[in-house]
Amino acid sequence: MTIKRALIKAFLILAISLLGLSTHLFAQNDTPVLDSQLNGTFQIKRGPVINDTAYKNYASGEFTPGRGFDLVRTKFGALNISIYAMARYLNQMPGTQTWQDHLGKSHDFTGRNDFYWHRSMIWFSGWVGTPKFTYAATVWTVFTTQQTLIYGNMQYRVNSHLRFGLGVGPNLSVRSMQGSFPFYSSTDRTMGEDALRGGFTHGFWITGEVVPKLYYTVMFGNNLSTLGIQASKLTRNLAKSASIWWMPTTGEFGPRGGIGDFENHEEVATRFGASYVNSREDRFNNIGTPSPDNTQIRMTDGVLFFETGALAEGVTVDNATYNMFSIDAGVKYRGFNLQAEFYGRKLSKFAADGPLPLSELNDFGYSLQVNKMIIPQKLMLYGAHSYFFDEFKRHPWEAGGGINLYPFKNRSWRLNGQVMYVYKTAAGGTFGLYTAGQTGTTITFGSDILL
Fold first, then answer.
1. How far apart are the C-alpha atoms of 131 and 127, rounded to whole Å?
2. Where does the signal sequence lie (predicted)?
3. 450: which residues sit within 8 A by CB, 6+ positions away?
4. Is the predicted pLDDT of residue 83 greater than 90, yes or no?
5. What DSSP designation does 17 have?
6. Sorting pLDDT into bands at 50, 70 and 90, what band is 9?
7. Are 409 and 54 in contact (CB under 8 A)?
8. CATH architecture of 86-124+135-450
9. Among 60, 202, 374, 381, which lies 20 to 30 A Cα-Cα from 333?
């Protein structure tokens, strides 16, 4: 066979393959309809029916793949690619101000006013050998923090009562860490959740259904958050977290258990949950360095807990025990959704290089979210509020709301606008919507896609 003939043959094979793939992609992009129990099985309104089961959200937190597009499917295994992407404009007002922490020290605040392609995730997922053994490899990047990682997890399903997982997963501290991403009211978490929550780490977990409508997850991880922490810096202390949730009426709470009744439940859907986390935390770098590597824990005045001088001038805390619990309750009915959550965090057993005025910190707070589909599968209005009863009696809070527009009448593409007033913001960093210490108005406009 000449080189010319070989090239022609290869071109024809490629063209036929792309034609078949484009037909499949069109079917995947049609509006999916979840089955009657909303358990992840999809059928297509028009075009060929794909009798397939998407990967249910078993303790994968933000790492659960989207529906995606099948690249390979054989008797031995399957490979699927899916993506999440989000861009937004963020304006934190006023532009500049000075705020005081609980010790009375002054900090300068410069509010953000910028556009960013904020976050991208690309999932390569599927199963190997048996559909019981699933995998997900994820390319993750957050442009605002200049972080890019590749991580994943492997899970084996024994039966409906028991599934094992190994890889990167969430510390089960608050509701938003248990799989609802990216189906939040806005494009990120509320201030209350963001300020106190644990992060994601490498670990091992088990999850399943105890009895019909009652579920559990238990997680053992390296620490509270793996971001920026090398294995050589870890201690032998493991983080432990557990969550249990009950959906007594319909046995489900919509796709991913997300916020908002986009699916327009004809029967009242309810969800009640409780979670707990314990971790002995380290600052993970030399105590003589003012800025810690452990940036997951902040106090309610917005200051990093392990930062030198956080609790007393010139004193650095090297170790502390983190305990957090939360309870949540939600209801959905005919486009209406009410979500409430109460949480408490205790920091104790401090090991520091000097005397401290406190032996422990106890902070409590709540979040409320109310959502209503004004135009079914098209337009949603929502309100959100968070408030703290904190150790320092600063009482940070937020109140506001926004609008979600779904141009294609499905959750795959959303346009979001939000206005939120914040008071002495406890959350901080460029990952979310908040900068520590701000008192003022934050405006965001964003768009995200999940395929």
1. 5
2. 1-27
3. 66, 82, 83, 84, 182, 411, 412
4. yes
5. H
6. low
7. no
8. Beta Barrel (2.40)
9. 60
User: Which helix (DSSP H) or strand (DSSP E) does residue 441 occupy?
Assistant: strand 440-450
Residue type, 375: I
Contact 91, 443 (CB under 8 A): yes
pLDDT at 58: 43
User: Residue 259 is encoded by which pair of tokens?
Assistant: 């916020």
pLDDT bin (cut points 50, 70, 90) of residue 19 is very low
Convert the pLDDT of each residue in 213-266 to its tens digit: 999 999 999 999 998 899 999 999 999 999 999 999 999 999 889 999 999 999
Would you kindly state where each structural domain of the chain is located, as residue ranges? 86-124+135-450
Mean pLDDT of 168-182: 91
Pairing status of strand 32-34 against strand 41-44? antiparallel
* Buried residues in 114-144 as b, exposed as e (16+ CB within 10 A): eebebbbbbbbbbbeeeeeebbbbbebbbeb
Q: Is the peptide bond before 290 cis (omega within 30 degrees of 0)?
A: no
